[in-house]
Amino acid sequence: MNEEKVKDIVYYYARLFEMLKWVSFFRLIVYFVEKKNGGISSKFVELWVFFHCVLSSMTIFAVYYFGEYKWIIYPIIVYGWMRVVEIIIYQINVLLFDPYRATQSNRPYQVKGYLRMIILLIHNAFEIVFWFSSIYMYFLQYFGVEDDVANNIVQAFYISFVTMTSFGLPNFVIKSSWGLGIISVQSFIGLIMTMLTFARFISLLPMVRSGTKSESDDK
Hints:
Elements: H1 2-6, H2 9-20, H3 25-37, H4 42-66, H5 70-104, H6 114-138, E1 143-145, H7 152-165, E2 172-174, H8 177-204
Antiparallel strand pairs: 1-2
Helix pairs in contact: 2-5, 4-5, 4-6, 5-6, 5-8, 6-7, 6-8, 7-8
């Protein structure tokens, strides 16, 4: 009976995201390294995140200069999509389901450091912006930016940043259903990353005692 009570919606989503985490190059590398060496260092994780943040920022220039070579661009776009999916699944697992699985298995759960986690999360957010910048760079004909400037790289990054963060009113128009689809996907991802970021920050805020009697726990 207790086993049945555990299998609520949280249980099934935890199982789902436990399977989805294998849609990741990083997870496969971790699996083989752990199988061979018994573990993977936190330094490797940090280098992995930092390397991909730098790599994603450079791909927009690769698309700009080698955009006519599809055999170069398509692998970049596909790998970028895979990294974005990997980031979202990883962050959802870390924030929501890893602690839940540890509790269900009666295992202690701890992280390397909260500040470290936030810094890596910020790197992930910028990486997503850069990957989408590369995509917009390649499909820039699907968009039109008001007060058009000559620098296409700046335009692509601007579209990606505004869509991801929703800071300010966008001054670009969408010219095709493909463009609308890309914008919609990034807007959804931006919403998820925003919620994850706020949830992580809010969880770290210290409890503040209230001076209002009805809000105080003091008797």
